Amino acid sequence: MANPIGSNQFQEILSAAKERRGDLPVDTMIVASHLSQMRTFILRRGIEFYCEQDSYGKRREFLSKVYEDNMLEMKLESIVDYFLCDGQGLFYFRPSGESYQILYFPKDSYRCYRDQTGEIESVVLIYSFNVREASLVDSFANPGARGGKQKYIRLKVYKDRIEQLISSEKIEFEDQNSGLPTMTQPGNTETLTNSLGFIPAVEVFNHLDCTGQGHGRGEFDWISNQILYHDDLVRNIRKNMKFFGNPTLVSSRPKHDILESGEEKPFRATISSQAGFYAPDRPSSRASAPFGGASSLDGQIKVPRVIANLEPTDRVSYMTPDSVSGDQNMYVKQYRSEIRLALGGVDDIDFNLASTAYEIKTLYGRVAATAEKKARALFQFGLCRLMAMMVQHEEYIFNKSFANANGMSEPAIPLEEEFEGQEPDAYQAALEEYKVLRQVFESKRKELFNATLESGQMPPGVVGLIPDGTTKVSWRWMGEVFEDDSQDILNNSIVVRNLQELGVDSIEALKYLFPSKTDEERAAMLSGFPFRMVQQSQQAFNTFVGMLGQLYQLPHPQTPNLPLASDPNLDVTGFLYRSLDFLRKELSYSGTYKPSSSDSRPSSLSTADKRRAELGLPIRDQRPVNLPGVSTPGGATGTGTNAASPGLPAAGGPAGFGGDTSSTGESVAAGIPGTQRKSEYAQPVPGPGTILGVPDANASGQFPSSLGLTGTPSAIPTGAADLLSPSFNPGLFGPGGARDASAASSPNTKPKSNRKSKRK
Predict the structure, then answer these.
(1) Could you tell me the pTM of the whole model?
(2) Nearest by Cα to 403 from 433, 436, 443
């Protein structure tokens, strides 16, 4: 069992580094130094996000706008600190006007629940914000640090809806309340429709375990004992320096002869002072020392500059102790270097390990390798996937707005619940009709889109991004920590030229000069006229032509009546074609189109479930968790889905007997059915450490609301959840109050309707 005192001390060290707090009693600088070094090599000269496929040049502008609107360049330093210390975090975005708002939640501010396939099923977010004192109820809330009253919000984000709870009291997670759901939550609750159709969140991890545990580990958790020990060492050294830092006076004379009194008035004991009383305006034996004590400035006792009346036998001298020995200092330094080495960094104080610039770059190569792994975990598997979701949503908005701008109405998919009580074939007939109308709609929209691209005129009212193949988003550094000087750039250019002369492709050769650019960007850079390549190719072509002319002039040794060029083994015509093909390629570099089949798209709702969510109805197509012993009653532990008989189908009895084997209820006498096993792809299993969202998310009315009334589907407001959300601008009584009741009742099904047609 871990020591709670040591754990609290270690959390103070991490909090001081993450929150940049100097008021905590922390003496070691290992955590702060390692984080500073990682920030330098992770962020470097800046981060740029771009799409690998950008035929129209609008995606880069969109990503740059999102990056600037959210001031990610200023927030990334704090995000790196929290990510490394916590070991995991969550990126979440929500539409905000014409842009998106990107939020980062630390480990203690969110809970992420997944399904059997590892996809995020639901997310719970809890954070605080401040509002102006607007009512008598808010006056009893906790005041904020910069004014206003502090409130707390809890967001339960599902694919079809968003449940918001705003309260003046602190909200806790269910796992912090003995794992039991809170029956009553003080505050105002509101349920909104998630118009995105998916969960706009990406979870990032640090130090994933080899067993596949679904949680990350902090950068310093596994070495916490060593950090605490180093903190104690530094604290003891500081105490020794404070205590033994000044010399000690050794004398045979009395104390009052060699110490200077700190009081201006002469000390004289009184009856009241002897009884325990003293006056605040004058010294006494109870309130002050006879000789003034330690100084209030430096904490030291003053010695007079002149000590008189010394006898020949008196002794007055200073003793200077060794507060910190050389061995102790060397041990602390070596211990700090070993900890930094174990963390994958380098102690910046150890300059004696390197004497040249190349040795310094080699020494910091370990730091660069460690930082690159952290950067890939944070950017490639975090922010890049989040921004890819934004691009996909922008393309969805473009298709919707483009159809509306051209006067096209998208056919509505029929719902099965709308045909209850009708003929059995009515739903299938309506579904087949919908498929035909859908195909006609998509083909017409495609024809209009191609005509729009040829004309170059986008209809007014069209917003979003034009669909352009793959939506994968990548990242790169704007510059290295150690920038190349002019000599390094010249050497790299010489290498590129030599590779081109050897016949290496120009795009491949330019990787040595521009390693951070993509192949499409290198191809765009080669759009000029390569005079050197043209000159060399022309000379090679003339050489082959001259060789061919000489072969036609010389007779063949074996057949003198034929020229030497008639020999098929000496045919140089292929060399002529190859030289021309090389020249044609060097003069016609262009980008390549990448299909969207390789995109990692989030798990979203079906078309029918999107319509159900807009209507406020519970979804049906979402696959629930189906695990024996977890989602079935009775605690089944077998391989089947029947709680009573593990390993067998749900309809079968013990050993496969006695169950209703068909829809007609055929008896067992007709035949003995065997066990029916599922394929492994039909029954996925959760990953190690995954938190499954087993409870039914649509159990409306399971618990009463704050007013004691259960919610109904008709009372659920429809429309864009992120646009209707007043989370960052709450009203007088919060969402769900009397002031917002009228606004919530009016549906708004158009996502991001306030956009202006600026993107064309």
Answers:
(1) 0.72
(2) 443
